[in-house]
Amino acid sequence: MKLKNICLAALLTAAAQTSFAQEHYFIDGYHGGVYGHYPHGYTQFVTSQLKANPYWKINLEIEPETWDRVRTEEPEAYAGFKHLFADQSAGGRIEYVNPAYGQSYLYTGSGESMIRQFSYGIQKLKEHFPGAVFTTYSSEEPCFTSALPQVLRSFGFKYASLKNPNTCWGGYTRAFGGELVQWQGPDGSQLLTVPRYSSEALLPNSTWQTTAWNNGREYISSARAAGIAHPVGMCLQDAGWRNGPWLKQHAKYETWRNYIGNIANHSNVPVWKVSQEDIQVSLVWGAQVLQRIAQQVRAAENKLVNAEKYAAIATLCDNTAWPRQQLDTAWKTLLLAQHHDCWIVPYNGREGDTWIDKVQHWTDNTLFVSNNILQQNNRETTYIRVLNTTAQPRSEWVQLPEGRQWEVTNSKGKPVETQQGRIKVTVPPMGFSVYKLQPATGKNSQPVREEDHLLQIETDLYHAEIDPARGGVITSLVVKATGKEMVDKRNSRGFNELRGYFYNENTWRTSMDTAAAVRITEHNKACTSVEIDGFIAGHPFTQQVIFTNGQRRIDMKVKIDWKGNPGIGAYSQADNYSAEAYQKAFYNDSCKLQVLFPLHLTTQQLSKDAPFDVTNSRLESTFFSSWDSIRNNVILHWVDVTDGNNGLALLTDHTSSYVHGKDYPLGLTLQYAGRALWGRNYDITGPTEVSYAIVPHKGNWETGGISNEETGWCEPLQVLPAKGGRDFSLLALQNKHWQVSALLMDGKDLLIRLYNPGGNNSESLLTFNGAATAAVMEQLNGDAGKILPQRKASGKTIIRLGIPRFGIRTIRLKNVSVNY
């Protein structure tokens, strides 16, 4: 009898649990692909599970290229899957929730790269599934960034999810709201979204899950207590797992499309203005492997944007063929190099085919194609074009082919100022200037001056002082136009100091520990270049500081020649690493090697750029040391510190982390070495080389024009071979804030994508140096919008349009011709 009662109690408990589970909803599906993880024969497994479990619905985040292989290797399963996928109605059983070509984290690359992730991904998926409908964006990893709403809406998406409950290794979004929110991006665009609920806690004894990962009783109860009538959990399983339905029959499986569209409560949905700091993400910032991947991706990204814009200009004014196939290949390899797995599991893979190796191969291809389009492998030097791919005119010094001196004349035959292999050029917006080169007599050399005392530097814009006795730090930086001293001389930290905690030595080490040798390597009308040779913890380093006349930006570089593999960070975890432990050394940037900039500014406000966004930081400091307290301390291109009257921006050649706090100076993370994710040793395997820059300015980042400085940093003037000709400018923008994010041809049409990083919403003019039969606003999915009015003046086409702050707009000029 007792046994019977126990059995009955167990059955009743199981029934109650099943009943409880069936009262709520669950998002199941698969994440991965041919590069990440997608075993041979796996499509047959998924198809068979769908047929065996008619109650099951799935959501897919599968790399689009995967289906090329599936079509070849599993033709029958491929056909069966296409049949099941064909129903794209709300009642259908399969929804594709992330069509991004390379499953990027999105916040690590440019806004234009984000757009291409979706455009190339959707294009590839449409080859396999012509009827595919893209309704909801969702990701198993924290592949989120604040500007997604306007991009997704322009591609036709209606909904999004900000959950990633089962793969939070790289972070998670801030807990906010209930059943639904209107996710509002920086431009004002809104998208109906399922957030990570305010009641959705991080899971105890885990550093990769929230409570929504399996619809546990506590999660559902807390959601109901918070007023959520239709709680939903989520797990996009790794492709390769063979569980079938994740919770078996203990849930109501749904697609996001049907859940958000027809089940979730749409009444009284609050608006959530998502800041980039609500995307609480963290990677192993400062690790040498991550640094190199980020630099390779950034270099390829920048060069490809230059090449694509030039290809459009050359197509129109030189009648060259539009290199569509080459550009498509270059973009696809760049997008794959931005894959989230490159950043979070760089060492994974077979020897010779790790993510590190893949990134090298992919970015090499992007650079090869880009350099071919720019003809930068051509040795012809009689004439050059100096190319400007930004929308503002530029007057700058550029470096000519090295090894010889030149006499230079412009396209009108007038001599151009030259200095030490450089020339002062003036280039119109979105175009080029032509120069003729003739070898000159004389040597391209200059004596090097060694300095062992306080070095004073005078340029047209700055007075600076560098102290060899203090390791070569900058002890004064005065902006001549205002008389403002930028260096906080009372701070114990040095300006351009290297400092970090070497845990094997149990001590802090700094470049100011030993004196440095300081040399002036160049001093003329073009620039003053200083080289600083010093030591940190016995490891030799070289810093360069380059002041270019007429240029606000002060360029800097550092190279550290490590002797061995020192441990750098808060502490060693060589013997006590635990995946479940919240505290990990790699979270703690305060002890990583940094380059620091103590600023003579009072109340400091920090701002930072993100894809199609700028965030005014709300953080008192950037520091955290555990998984449950992640703060967004990501530097994409720049961070800026201001007191409202004066400011300084810090630019970097790669996505990384920055440091800053109420009582801590601005700095850039340079090096971490030690254990990190999955207990892997993130070692130092060679020299650390980083380029960075500072820009002192008046006002804040917007009035100080920092977005345009970033564009010039990312799109430097390019010196290209030419056969003579005249100067040319394709277009100009009246609004000095607006930028050209992309320029490309589509048949006889020219597509221009504009971005407003900080100007007001008032209408402004775009002047095109030619004619077009129509100017049409276009969505990113190709849908035509309103026709823009245009007028002609002096053979040019003038178009008036408005762009909201942080907004993007794509304009199609139909059947274009240019005046050249």
Summary?
The chain is of the alpha+beta class and 820 residues long.
Q: What is the number of independent domains? A: 3
Low-confidence stretches: 1-22
**For this structure, what is the CATH homologous superfamily of the largest domain?**
Glycoside hydrolase 38, N terminal domain
Q: Strand tally, please?
A: 53
Describe this structure in words.
The strands form twelve sheets. Strands 19-26-27-28-29-40-35-34-31-32 form a ten-stranded antiparallel sheet, with helices on one face. The relative contact order is 0.11. It has 820 residues and is of the alpha+beta class. It is built from 13 helices and 53 strands. Helix 2 (42-52) crosses helix 4, helix 5 crosses helix 10 and helix 9 (288-317) runs antiparallel to helix 10 (324-337). The protein starts with a helix and ends with a strand. The chain has three domains: 2-281, Glycoside hydrolase 38, N terminal domain (7-stranded beta/alpha barrel); 449-702, Beta-galactosidase, Chain A, domain 5, CATH 2.70.98.30; 734-820, Sandwich (Immunoglobulin-like).
